[in-house]
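Before relying on records like the one below, remember that each one covers exactly one chain. Contacts with other chains, cofactors or solvent are not represented anywhere in the record.
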Amino acid sequence: MNLAAPVEIALRRITAHDNAAIAGVIREVSAEYGLTADKGYTVADPNLDELFQVYSQAGHAFWIVELDGKVVGGGGVAPLTCSEPDICELQKMYFLPVVRGKGLAKRLALQAMDFAREEGFKRCYLETTAFLTEAIALYERLGFEHITEPLGCTGHVDCEVRMLRAL
């Protein structure tokens, strides 16, 4: 008889020890979808290898998704730079294929928005690209609405899909 070991999925706040692993996930998923640094996607972020330090600031939070102790995804929320102070941004939502379709992105996004609401934010903004259809569908189900003009100073020039949601 072949008994499969139980799968353990954890969603927890980032630690300094997660920096290399989550940067690796982001790079791997970016490569899978052709999200290159020359187009201003997350892989161009100069702080990609220091996400714990970035998300340890006030009003910031980042969560790691672990599968059997291995980092397989994550995402965060932070104040939207160069914007009205009541707008946050859902950021860096990346998941390896092994955990896609299991409701973890929804769970993480809801947790991020709860955190943002507790921090006093009134609206949540995000940017993505049109070929990430599964992500866009999730954001629409979560109540994000498409907007035409970019908000803030994200630097993501090729993220042509912009969405906003009241918290």
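Strands lie at 9-13, 61-67, 70-79, 87-95, 123-128, 145-147, 161-166.
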